[in-house]
Specification:
The protein is mainly alpha-helical and 175 residues long. It has helices at 24-27, 45-61, 69-80, 82-95, 102-112, 116-125, 139-142, and strands at residues 16-19, 65-68, 127-128, 150-152. Helix 3 (69-80) packs across helix 6 and helix 4 (82-95) packs across helix 5 (102-112). The longest helix is centred in the first third of the chain and has 17 residues, at 45-61.
């Protein structure tokens, strides 16, 4: 039996932390996405990654257990069984604008062809149009932005899930 989560203070010793390492979702971010994804600036992958390594070292030095969002998500989907995985995928497709249709079906088939961890990573990182051997022929797809490179947007805001500005400037001072 696991103990329930009880957070009584934000200043006590940190026993466990959940985070998302910056990955392709940050690398996939382009200036064209800033307004669409509500960003004021482009996240700089190398700096984010360097800061994450520093943060992980600090957690390790202080005995803090680190849980990774992408791994926990895949484990939860695997533990929940096929129905939970399919419901998750349908929800992600719907939130990406694909409730039904040929694009929905192609994305679903593509994502289900991956193992669960790869599927979670791909959804977080974004699904590029050139990754699928598929050319949408329905009317709704023809009306979409032809020059936009993604079927499913990357999720660059997943890293530092508690505070996206943490160690943003790389000077070792929390801003």
């Amino acid at each position: 039996m696991t103990s329930p989560i009880h957070v009584m203070s934000e200043i006590g010793k940190l026993k466990t932390v959940m985070l998302k390492r910056p990955n392709v979702e940050v690398e996939n971010f382009t200036p064209d996405m800033m307004e669409r994804l509500l960003f004021d600036d482009i996240p700089y992958y190398q700096l984010r990654n360097k800061n994450m390594i520093t943060l992980l070292k600090l957690y390790g030095q202080n005995g803090t257990e680190v849980l990774y969002l992408e791994q926990l998500s895949a484990e939860a989907l695997d533990d929940g069984g096929e129905e939970v995985k399919l419901n998750f995928l349908e929800q992600m497709l719907a939130e990406s604008g694909y409730v039904a249709g040929v694009t929905h079906d192609a994305l679903k088939e593509y994502l289900l062809s991956l193992d669960t961890q790869a599927m979670v990573n791909k959804i977080m990182g974004g699904v590029r149009k050139n990754e699928l051997d598929f050319v949408p022929a329905d009317l709704a797809s023809a009306a979409e932005e032809d020059d936009y490179p993604f079927f499913m947007d990357p999720m660059p805001n997943l890293y530092f899930t508690r505070d996206p500005s943490l160690l943003q400037y790389g000077d070792g001072v929390e801003h």
